Amino acid sequence: MLFKVLITDDEPTIREGLKTLIDWEELGFEVVGTAANGKDALGKFEGLAPDLMIVDIRMPGMSGLELIEQLRKNGHAVHVMILSGYADFEYAKKAITLDTDGYLLKPVDEDELVDYLKKLRVTLASESEAKQKSSMQEQLNREWVVQSLLTPGGQVPEEDALARADLIWDSYAVLLFKPLNGQGQLPALRSRIVSQYEETGKGVVFMFESCVGLLLKDNPKLEPVRKGLQISLLQLSDIEFAAAAGSAVKKLADLQSSFDEAVKLLEQRFFYEEDQLLTGSSVPIKARMTAADGAAMAEPEGEDFIVYCDETAEKLYLAVDIGNKEAYASLVGAAGKHLLEHGSSEQELKAAMAHIVTGVISKLSQRDPELQSRSGELSAGILAIHQTVTYRALERHVIDFVSRLNPGVISAGTDKQVKKLLDLIQRNYAENLKLESLADVFNYNSAYLGKLFKSATGEYFNTYVDKVRVEKAKELLGQGMKVYQVAEMVGYSNVDYFHSKFRKYVGSAPSAYRKR
């Protein structure tokens, strides 16, 4: 830390000479400005806030003596060293009575100046430390008052105690800031909030569990508060945080209600859009979706919930199989929307997404055993689902995670789309393939996809799938496998239905074909 110096003398050669006479920084000082007379120095004082002023005793306009008198009158305790010639000795003695540190005779002796600055640096360092301790103690006292008010059963202090703590305001609002990347960021977050709001008289900072609290003074518009702090924090580091504000209250006795509101909002931050200060007027993501699509659906029963997740996993698997990244986003977004509208809690949402992703991985592993060699990466990806702190972060992570299961990207053009669909059928004929589900995977209307398929193959979709399955069944029956086993392996859960399809396309029963 360098202490600041303002040099004041009406002679330019003296001003410039003093700036270059010694190595100021080596001694712990920096010359932040110069002034040609007392009036000029007084005008620069407020902006520069020097720790030391070196002042010529005789100057035109406002003299050095008059400058010192005015500074003391204004309550400034800045250190002052006066410059004087021998003829000014009586003036110098008078200046000393105005609490100056002493005087230097012109021409200034370099060694004398260096010796003085070394002693002064020790004094300034001691004063700075004392100020910091005093400021810290005052801060702790104010923080204690606020925390006592937020303790259940806490009493509002007497008015004179509030006045001493400078807590008699027109209104009060509690803001809570929670770092999203762990408590290790709390000190940096607290320091920046103190610097930006407490030290500028805009509020009182306090700690609450894993949050930094701010008692905000006189209810300013809240969103600029958050945006300003976010910009400041980004300049400091990559601190990410959630923030919530309770409603403003007029009395400290009602502060608990503002605090409780902020706590509740912060606890529900998962369900709100990111990068906003949560207030009572903030609209959760679910409400936005419901407003756009009409009334929300009733909460599902447990069995229906699992069935929905399994169906989504099936669709998402097929999308991964063909490498359709656009479909990943669409299917994950639709699943999240469905779960939100059904009133799922944060943990239920995460569990459902983990269930869906696990289902996709299970199906992919059956087709591609090498995927099991990535078990560490896959386990970490599923664990990260439960560690997301907002719904949007959950959505992004699942889409990104699924895309890494198969980095391929679907090719453009309807012919290539149909080819992808044909390849998918050949690989997944044993799955429960429905045109409606595949339409979601390919981002087409099911009727339109059916027309494209019929145009390209000459067959209806279901007919084509049945024929692929029957051809695979013929191969398996030829290997001597039992009819019921073959039926299940090619995608028919009902053996009688398999019999009818096989006879339709082959002309004989599966058992008869097996005996050939």
UniProtKB/TrEMBL annotation:
Entry annotated with the keyword DNA-binding: yes
Residue ranges occupied by any Response regulatory domain in the UniProt entry: 4-121
Subcellular location: Cytoplasm
InterPro entries cross-referenced by the UniProt entry: CheY-like_superfamily, Homeodomain-like_sf, HptR, HTH_AraC, HTH_AraC-typ_CS, Sig_transdc_resp-reg_receiver, Tscrpt_reg_AraC-type_HTH
CDD domains linked to this entry: REC_YesN-like
Annotated SUPFAM superfamilies: CheY-like (SSF52172), Homeodomain-like (SSF46689)
Record protein name field: DNA-binding response regulator
Organism name: Paenibacillus montanisoli
Taxonomic lineage: Bacteria, Bacillati, Bacillota, Bacilli, Bacillales
